[in-house]
Amino acid sequence: MGNFISKKHCIFEKKVQVMESKISKMETDINNSKLRHYNNYNKIIFYYFIIELYLAAFLYEKLASSDTLSEKAMCFLYSLFASMIIYSLAKFYRLLFERLIKNNEIKLLKLYDGLDKLFEARKMETDYDKTKKLLEDYEFFKKNSNNRYQEEYQQQQPPQPPQTPQPPQPSQPNPGPKLEVENYLYRYPFCITWKI
């Protein structure tokens, strides 16, 4: 029986350790991905400005060397188109990583909920086992105290001579139930909370 209980306790500890390791791994993944996303986004913005400066210099050179208006317009459109592509890729990257981080945070919350449920189940199981053990101890104590009380009561009582029955007196209340309650409290002192 002891092996079963200790194995049961070890299984619970292993489950808790697995959940805690998953939670810590998920927290580090979230923090690392946030940091990596922030650094990469800053690099994208930095390179975006460098590319824009390069495109502006290229556009200026092309505008100065070309004679026709259509060539100048095409250079301007290519520059604008390249800027829009870079900007849209940066926004897409940001949305993608924010979505991934949000999904990981939701998974982390689910892991925390799973850990809480695991502890709640253990508390309910422990309370049941503890209550069952207390009831068994109470029954054992009750049997022992009843046997002991009966043995002591029989040893302490001297033989009584037969008495003639007396009629009950109407002016005094019947003290029978009160004595029974006092004897019960004497036998079971842990049940003092009962009031009659």
Question: Overview of this structure, please?
Answer:
With 196 residues, this protein is mainly α. It has one domain. 84% of the residues lie in helices and 0% in strands. Helix 1 packs antiparallel against helix 2 (69-156). The two termini are 41 Å apart. 0% of the residues are buried. Residues 158-176 have a biased composition (Pro residues). Keywords: Membrane, Transmembrane, Transmembrane helix. Residues 150-178 are annotated as: Disordered. The chain crosses the membrane at residues 44-64, 76-97.
Major sheet summary line: none
User: How many domain units?
Assistant: 1
Mean pLDDT: 75
Number of E-state strands: 0
Q: Mind telling me the C-alpha Rg? A: 43 Å
Shape call: rod-shaped
Through-space gap between termini: 41 Å
- In terms of structural class, how would the helical and strand content be classed? mainly alpha
Helix content: over 70%
- Following the backbone from N to C, one meets helices and strands in this order, namely HHH
The proportion of residues in beta strands is under 5%
Parts with pLDDT < 50 across at least 5 consecutive residues: 1-5, 176-186, 188-196
Helix tally equals 3
Keywords: Membrane, Transmembrane, Transmembrane helix
Transmembrane segments: 44-64, 76-97
Region (Disordered): 150-178
GO cellular component, one term: endoplasmic reticulum tubular network
